[in-house]
TrEMBL record:
Organism placement in taxonomy: Bacteria, Bacillati, Bacillota, Bacilli, Bacillales
Xref: Gene3D superfamilies: Ribonuclease Z/Hydroxyacylglutathione hydrolase-like (3.60.15.10)
The name this protein goes by in its record: Phosphoribosyl 1,2-cyclic phosphodiesterase
Domain spans labelled Metallo-beta-lactamase: 13-218
Catalysed reactions listed for this entry: 3',5'-cyclic CMP + H2O = CMP + H(+); 3',5'-cyclic UMP + H2O = UMP + H(+)
Function: Counteracts the endogenous Pycsar antiviral defense system. Phosphodiesterase that enables metal-dependent hydrolysis of host cyclic nucleotide Pycsar defense signals such as cCMP and cUMP.
SUPFAM superfamilies tied to this protein: Metallo-hydrolase/oxidoreductase
Length: 268
């Protein structure tokens, strides 16, 4: 079958994604209660019993809220780097030693025929990461919660067939919003979140004919909207001379309250 995935939900209230190739199924983050994650699984005909493990990007609650409960219920190994393990231990409860797995930043590991590589990102967490997934020549990259895209991030996600990429906020909506200034400054900073414009700028640098689709993820419910995100990202790309036809490249939505349809990475 090759790689396929569904973003179960994405946003400031919770994040979880499933990657599968017919033999191996992986969960990236578990930012909801165990009950809610099971509900999201059911919507995409997934069972926690099918999982080979859980990969953690960082320790913020919208990424690990249900991690401990899901891992214990289904007796799953959990993979994170050492600093993330230290930062989240008190929040997730007891995990058996045999299920406490360290995947260092920049390291790779094979899960059946899926190879997973982690890479460092810039965010105000202990040691946050994104992940690239490979199956043969197919490549999917999941990269959210980053204040800016460093050269190392760009190199890591280059040549992806499909991206799940943050487009967190509209800058003017954030500036005019009700958050206190210290929170706004954090979001806008280099260890915060990518704006729509910054996401468009990044995509314009990555467009090389291989990327087929990008899912705009982790949208703020306060400071962004689906239509605005798509329009702003595309406008930012066009401002930088990056024009495309919808038949060549697609921007797709993720949702805070429901999963995306299964997407087979190899499909055009």
């Amino acid at each position: 079958m090759g790689l396929r995935f569904t973003v179960l939900s994405s946003g400031s209230t919770g994040n979880a994604t499933v990657v599968d190739n017919g033999e191996t199924t992986l969960l990236i983050d578990a930012g909801f209660s165990c009950r809610r994650i099971d509900e999201l699984f059911m919507e995409r005909e997934v069972s926690g019993q099918d999982l080979s493990g859980i990969l953690v990007t960082h320790e913020h609650s919208d990424h690990i809220k249900g991690l401990g409960a899901v891992a214990r219920k289904y007796n799953l190994p959990v993979y994170a780097n050492e600093k993330t393990w230290s930062a989240m231990e008190k929040s997730i409860g007891q995990i058996p030693d045999e299920n406490r797995c360290v995947l260092g930043t920049g390291d790779s590991q094979d899960f059946g025929s899926i190879r997973v590589e982690s890479f460092a990102i810039s965010h105000d967490a202990a040691e946050p990461v994104g992940y690239c997934f490979y199956d043969g020549k197919e490549k999917l990259s999941v990269c959210t919660d980053l204040g800016y895209a460093s050269d190392k991030v760009k190199a890591a996600i280059a040549d992806s067939d499909v991206l799940v990429l943050e487009a967190n906020h509209d800058i003017e909506m954030l500036r005019m919003g009700r958050y206190p200034w210290n929170i706004k400054r954090r979001i806008l900073g280099d260890m915060g979140h990518l704006s729509n414009e910054a996401t468009g700028e990044l995509l314009s640098e990555l467009m090389n004919g291989r990327i087929k689709r990008t899912y705009l993820a982790h949208l703020s419910r306060e400071h962004n909207m689906l239509d605005l995100a798509r329009m702003s990202v595309r406008g930012s790309m066009e401002d930088r001379g990056c024009f495309y036809k919808d038949s060549e490249f697609k921007l797709r939505d993720t949702y805070f309250d429901r999963p995306t349809p299964w997407d087979i990475v190899a499909e055009l």
